[in-house]
What we know:
The chain has helices spanning 8-19, 25-43, 58-66, 83-94, 116-128, 174-177, 234-247, 261-265, 302-314, 346-353, 357-362, 364-374, 411-423, 426-429, 432-453, 459-465; strands at 3-4, 49-54, 74-79, 100-104, 131-135, 157-161, 179-183, 197-199, 223-227, 251-256, 272-275, 288-291, 318-321, 340-342, 379-382, 388-390, 396-398. The protein is α/β, with parallel strands linked by helices.
Amino acid sequence: MPLPxxxxxxxxxxxxxxxxxxxxxxxxxxxxxxxxxHTALCMTRPGESxxxxxxxxxxGDDARFAAEHxxxxxxxxxxxxxxxxxxxxxxxxxxxSPALLIDGLFGIGMNRPLGGDWVQVIERIxxxxxxxxxxxxxxxxxxNTGEPQPAAVEASVTLTVGAPKVGLxxxxxWQFVGRLAVxxxxxxxxxxxxxxxxxxxxxxxxxxxxxxxxxxxxGTYGHAxxxxxxxxxxxxxxxxxxxxxxAQPGLITLYTLPAVYPAIASQLQAVMVSEWSRESKLVxxxxxxxxxxxxxxxxxxxxxxxxxxxxxxxxxxxxVADASALAWLTPGALQSNGVRVITPHPGEAARLLGIKSxxxxxxxxxxxxxxxxxxGNTWVILKGHQTLVGRSSGEVYVNCSGNPYLGQGGSGDLLxxxxxxxxxxxILADDALKTLRYAVWQHGACADLLLAGRGGWVVENLAxxxxxxxx
Length: 471
């Protein structure tokens, strides 16, 4: 199940509820230490050095417990209890350029600004430019606000305990948190707290999508219609088509402008490609529509724009609007109960709301809810770091997968086609929220697979493995 995103006060309540049972703090810290060690092993190679910098609180104990589980690594534990007295020791250890530093200086209990000596310690850690694994949260970062106090460790990975803390998701925290991971099975009791913001876990997609029946055929799994591609942007249509194929609907038809038909059709085999004209109609057995990728040329016909706008308002089919099509949608209530999805990046979201991108990024949940309300309670996938999925009310889900190398042209086209290919399948459209969350997670998880296996990967490589990430 997804995890609630908690305030520090809620996390404290959860801990108190756990300590009121037979579970001990020592046992939980030991389990956290094992999880920290597991993550550290993934971040290093045998024979490399690991420096554990531990403070005097339980956060430091978590880090110390990791030491005994770091097999085949050269491990040193440095207790930093007095920043002035221990600074020279820290300098000496950092001068040896450890492959990984485990930050266990401060945890969620820190509730006041750091003194100058501690700021110097943190600035020296950051200046070392070593990979850093922060335990629970980067030392010096406020877990509620996401602000440094006034300095914070810049982690490569933050392994937070139990559930994400609200401050770790704020834009101000991103440069300090790095990649956020959660050690959620550490012996705490079931969480007694709730939140409208939920953290997606890979386990959420166990046995999803559901197994296909042996008697199924291409008619069983829907027909996706894609409206994409214009002069100068034909590659987006190809990538969207590849994404739809990886979702494995029964059939896919791509409608594109005559000027780019030869370039697109020559690259696709199983996808049926048709020239769009004023007289064009979608195939009768169509079950989902996707519009937008590659329709950025100045001479995109007005009738095509009007068709997309009208389909958004009236079509009973599931529909995904992305890229250029976002600007053609009519705000307001819909005349259909069909599933509606928009997939803006922060810049597009800002244009749709008439605000600046920074305003979107500073409060992404509010931006998502405003977008959903503006466009008829549509589902919104607000792309970017920690992509959000939700709508004007109810839970909003934070995606846990992905990496900065998704910031390539064509990545979003691939995702929108993949979403359309999934929603074209009736059994998946019936659970639209889970299907959308799965699409976003799979997109990011496959990018993570590529990053772990090779350097210099491109979106075409991602298209080759979409759907292959295992939960």
